[in-house]
Amino acid sequence: LHLVDRTEEFIDTIRSNKDVDGHTTSNYNSYRQTSIPPITIPVVAAVREILLEINEPLQGKDVVVIGRSKYVGTPLALMLSQATTDSKSSLISGATVTICHRDTHLN
Fold first, then answer.
1. What is the DSSP letter of 8?
2. pTM value?
3. Other beta carbons less than 10 A from residue 51's beta carbon
């Protein structure tokens, strides 16, 4: 089975409720459009738990995310920047996020 040009098409055959990594187009798009996604990407969930354990409010602070990948950097930046009314999540949301990647140049 040659998937080089059809990888996303193949991944999108996975049922959204079985897509624990958030790789399907529908889960990825829902993550970007809602503050409480139906499925949380495992790496982002792990970072969330670490930040909650640290117990340092991020609202209004400047945060840098290294990497803009579809499955880690971008969802992490979205989680940190989105406003939320959930008291637990509000501790780690509302930050001003800058994403740095391989094309980011320091002045």
1. H
2. 0.72
3. 18
Phi and psi for 97 in degrees, rounded to 5? -105, 135
Q: Counting beta carbons within 10 angstroms of the beta carbon of residue 36, is it exposed (0 to 12), middle (13 to 18) or buried (19 or more)?
A: exposed
Question: 64 lies in a domain?
Answer: yes
77-104 confidence digits (pLDDT tens): 988 988 777 777 788 888 999 999 999 9
For 107, the token pair is 């002045």
Phi-psi category of 55—alpha, beta or left, where left has phi over 0 and alpha has psi -120 to 50? left
CB atoms within 10 A of CB 24: 19
User: To which residue do tokens 């994403």 refer?
Assistant: 99
41 lies in a domain?
A: yes
Is residue 69, in this structure, part of any structural domain at all?
yes
How many independent structural domains does the chain possess? 1
Amino acid at 97: V
Chain-centre distance for alpha carbon 25: 14
Asked if the structure places residue 20 within a domain, the reply is: yes
Which residues constitute the domain of residue 38? 7-100
